[in-house]
Each structure stands twice: as C-alpha cells, then as structure tokens.
C-alpha cells in the first residue's frame, strides 16, 4: 500500500519555552492531565517532555 502525501502526519514541534513552561506547571503541582488539556497536547507528549 502506497502512502500519499496527504496521508502522512506531521509531528508537532514545540519551542523550548513551551516545553519548559509545561514541565514547570507540572512540577509546581498542576496535575499532568490538566496541564496537557490546557496546553492542547496529548498526555503522553507531556510525559515525554518531563523525562
């Protein structure tokens, strides 16, 4: 099966500032699921930023 260009998904890219702010929010006590929802990113992505 051949993938067409329109079938390809692009990975989201986040700035360093965005990543640092997301991690800071969680480190300061905001629950990770809430932070992910507020920032509009998947919970799994947020988990990867903190590691």
What does this 3D model show about the protein?
The protein has helices at 16-27, 32-39, 43-49. With 51 residues, the protein is an all-alpha fold. The protein has one domain. It is elongated, with a radius of gyration of 14 Å. The N and C termini lie far apart (36 Å). The relative contact order is 0.17.
Radius of gyration: 14 Å
Rounded average pLDDT = 85
Q: What is the helix content? A: 40-55%
Taking the sheet with the most strands, its summary is: none
Compressed to H and E, one letter per element, the order equals HHH
Number of domains: 1
Give the number of DSSP strands. 0
Number of helices: 3
Beta-strand share of residues: under 5%
Distance between the termini: 36 Å
Structural class by sheet pairing and helices:
mainly alpha
As an assembly, this protein is: single chain
| Overall body shape | elongated
Low-confidence stretches: none
Write the layout of secondary structure elements.
Blueprint: H1 16-27, H2 32-39, H3 43-49
């Amino acid at each position: 099966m051949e993938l067409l260009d329109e079938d390809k998904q692009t990975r989201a890219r986040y700035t360093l500032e965005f990543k640092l702010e997301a991690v800071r929010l969680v480190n300061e006590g905001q629950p990770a699921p809430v932070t992910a929802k507020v920032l509009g990113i998947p919970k799994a992505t947020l988990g990867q930023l903190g590691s």
